[in-house]
Write a structure and sequence with these properties.
about 80% helix, extended, 9 helices, about 170 residues, mainly alpha
Length: about 170
Protein backbone atom coordinates (compact mmCIF):
# COMPACT_ATOMS: atom_id res chain seq x y z
CA UNK A 1 0.00 0.00 0.00
CA UNK A 2 2.62 2.54 1.07
CA UNK A 3 5.07 1.33 -1.57
CA UNK A 4 2.49 1.83 -4.31
CA UNK A 5 1.86 5.39 -3.12
CA UNK A 6 5.57 6.21 -2.89
CA UNK A 7 6.28 4.90 -6.39
CA UNK A 8 9.02 6.85 -8.13
CA UNK A 9 9.28 9.47 -5.38
CA UNK A 10 11.45 7.22 -3.21
CA UNK A 11 10.04 8.30 0.16
CA UNK A 12 6.75 9.07 1.83
CA UNK A 13 8.19 12.43 2.89
CA UNK A 14 8.82 13.38 -0.74
CA UNK A 15 5.22 12.47 -1.60
CA UNK A 16 4.15 14.53 1.42
CA UNK A 17 6.26 17.48 0.28
CA UNK A 18 4.64 17.56 -3.16
CA UNK A 19 1.20 17.08 -1.60
CA UNK A 20 1.76 19.96 0.81
CA UNK A 21 3.05 22.10 -2.05
CA UNK A 22 -0.14 21.32 -4.00
CA UNK A 23 -2.30 22.17 -0.99
CA UNK A 24 -0.53 25.46 -0.38
CA UNK A 25 -0.57 26.61 -4.02
CA UNK A 26 -4.21 25.59 -4.50
CA UNK A 27 -5.33 27.21 -1.26
CA UNK A 28 -3.51 30.47 -1.99
CA UNK A 29 -4.97 30.49 -5.50
CA UNK A 30 -8.47 30.02 -4.12
CA UNK A 31 -7.96 32.71 -1.48
CA UNK A 32 -6.55 35.21 -3.97
CA UNK A 33 -9.32 34.84 -6.58
CA UNK A 34 -12.35 36.11 -4.74
CA UNK A 35 -14.34 37.10 -7.80
CA UNK A 36 -13.52 34.26 -10.21
CA UNK A 37 -15.59 31.37 -8.92
CA UNK A 38 -14.71 29.16 -11.90
CA UNK A 39 -11.03 29.37 -11.04
CA UNK A 40 -11.89 28.49 -7.44
CA UNK A 41 -13.84 25.49 -8.67
CA UNK A 42 -10.93 24.37 -10.86
CA UNK A 43 -8.51 24.69 -7.95
CA UNK A 44 -10.54 22.39 -5.72
CA UNK A 45 -9.60 19.34 -7.82
CA UNK A 46 -5.82 19.58 -7.25
CA UNK A 47 -6.51 20.65 -3.67
CA UNK A 48 -8.58 17.52 -3.04
CA UNK A 49 -6.01 15.25 -4.71
CA UNK A 50 -3.20 16.83 -2.69
CA UNK A 51 -5.11 16.44 0.58
CA UNK A 52 -5.80 12.77 -0.14
CA UNK A 53 -2.12 12.16 -1.03
CA UNK A 54 -0.95 13.94 2.12
CA UNK A 55 -3.12 11.81 4.37
CA UNK A 56 -2.34 8.59 2.51
CA UNK A 57 1.42 9.04 2.82
CA UNK A 58 1.14 9.65 6.60
CA UNK A 59 4.07 12.06 6.64
CA UNK A 60 4.06 13.89 9.96
CA UNK A 61 6.90 16.09 8.71
CA UNK A 62 4.75 17.35 5.85
CA UNK A 63 1.73 17.98 8.09
CA UNK A 64 3.80 19.96 10.59
CA UNK A 65 5.62 21.96 7.92
CA UNK A 66 2.33 22.71 6.14
CA UNK A 67 0.88 24.05 9.38
CA UNK A 68 4.02 26.15 9.89
CA UNK A 69 3.85 27.52 6.33
CA UNK A 70 0.20 28.50 6.72
CA UNK A 71 0.95 30.06 10.12
CA UNK A 72 3.75 32.12 8.54
CA UNK A 73 1.52 33.08 5.63
CA UNK A 74 -1.28 34.29 7.90
CA UNK A 75 1.24 36.03 10.18
CA UNK A 76 2.66 37.98 7.24
CA UNK A 77 -0.86 38.68 5.99
CA UNK A 78 -1.80 40.05 9.42
CA UNK A 79 1.39 42.14 9.63
CA UNK A 80 0.74 43.71 6.22
CA UNK A 81 -2.65 44.92 7.46
CA UNK A 82 -1.08 46.76 10.40
CA UNK A 83 0.18 50.32 10.18
CA UNK A 84 3.90 50.46 9.36
CA UNK A 85 4.88 51.74 12.80
CA UNK A 86 3.47 48.62 14.53
CA UNK A 87 4.89 46.00 12.16
CA UNK A 88 8.36 45.87 13.69
CA UNK A 89 7.06 45.73 17.26
CA UNK A 90 4.59 42.95 16.41
CA UNK A 91 7.23 40.97 14.53
CA UNK A 92 9.67 41.12 17.45
CA UNK A 93 6.89 40.26 19.90
CA UNK A 94 5.85 37.24 17.79
CA UNK A 95 9.44 35.98 17.56
CA UNK A 96 9.91 36.29 21.33
CA UNK A 97 6.54 34.65 21.99
CA UNK A 98 7.41 31.68 19.80
CA UNK A 99 10.92 31.46 21.30
CA UNK A 100 9.40 31.38 24.80
CA UNK A 101 6.59 28.97 23.90
CA UNK A 102 8.78 26.25 22.35
CA UNK A 103 10.79 25.40 25.51
CA UNK A 104 7.61 25.63 27.57
CA UNK A 105 5.87 23.15 25.28
CA UNK A 106 8.86 20.82 25.45
CA UNK A 107 8.99 20.94 29.25
CA UNK A 108 5.26 20.23 29.52
CA UNK A 109 5.61 17.19 27.26
CA UNK A 110 3.39 18.59 24.55
CA UNK A 111 5.67 17.17 21.85
CA UNK A 112 4.53 13.67 22.88
CA UNK A 113 0.89 14.77 22.65
CA UNK A 114 1.56 16.27 19.22
CA UNK A 115 3.29 13.10 18.04
CA UNK A 116 0.43 10.92 19.26
CA UNK A 117 -2.03 13.24 17.52
CA UNK A 118 -0.11 12.54 14.30
CA UNK A 119 -0.13 8.79 14.97
CA UNK A 120 3.54 8.59 16.00
CA UNK A 121 5.17 7.56 19.26
CA UNK A 122 7.79 9.59 21.09
CA UNK A 123 10.60 7.27 20.04
CA UNK A 124 9.67 7.83 16.38
CA UNK A 125 9.28 4.04 16.01
CA UNK A 126 12.61 3.27 17.60
CA UNK A 127 14.75 5.55 15.48
CA UNK A 128 15.83 7.69 18.43
CA UNK A 129 17.14 4.61 20.22
CA UNK A 130 18.92 3.33 17.13
CA UNK A 131 20.54 6.69 16.43
CA UNK A 132 21.66 7.13 20.04
CA UNK A 133 23.28 3.69 19.96
CA UNK A 134 24.82 4.45 16.57
CA UNK A 135 26.31 7.66 17.94
CA UNK A 136 27.79 5.80 20.92
CA UNK A 137 29.41 3.26 18.62
CA UNK A 138 30.58 6.02 16.28
CA UNK A 139 32.28 7.84 19.16
CA UNK A 140 34.36 4.74 19.83
CA UNK A 141 36.19 5.52 16.56
CA UNK A 142 35.90 9.31 16.32
CA UNK A 143 38.49 9.94 13.61
CA UNK A 144 37.58 7.37 10.98
CA UNK A 145 34.37 5.95 12.45
CA UNK A 146 32.31 3.29 10.72
CA UNK A 147 30.62 5.41 8.08
CA UNK A 148 26.88 5.48 7.48
CA UNK A 149 26.91 2.93 4.67
CA UNK A 150 29.31 0.70 6.56
CA UNK A 151 27.11 0.63 9.65
CA UNK A 152 23.38 0.99 8.91
CA UNK A 153 23.20 -1.82 6.36
CA UNK A 154 21.81 -5.32 6.64
CA UNK A 155 24.43 -7.91 7.37
CA UNK A 156 26.60 -5.71 9.65
CA UNK A 157 26.73 -7.44 13.06
CA UNK A 158 26.46 -4.20 15.07
CA UNK A 159 23.45 -2.97 13.14
CA UNK A 160 21.72 -6.36 13.17
CA UNK A 161 22.14 -6.69 16.95
CA UNK A 162 20.71 -3.21 17.49
CA UNK A 163 17.72 -3.95 15.26
CA UNK A 164 17.06 -7.23 17.11
CA UNK A 165 17.33 -5.53 20.51
CA UNK A 166 15.00 -2.74 19.33
CA UNK A 167 12.45 -5.29 18.10
CA UNK A 168 12.53 -6.99 21.52
CA UNK A 169 12.32 -3.63 23.31
CA UNK A 170 9.35 -2.33 21.26
CA UNK A 171 7.57 -5.62 20.57
Amino acid sequence: HTQALVGLFGSKNVVGFFAELGIFVSAISILSSRTRWRQCLRETIPLAISIVCLFMCKSATSLVSLAAVFACYWGVHFLRKLPAKFRGICTVAAVFLIAAALPLCMSLGLQDAGLSLLGKDSTLTGRTYLWSQGLKIGLQHPLLGHGFSAFWVQGRPEAESLWRSEERRVG
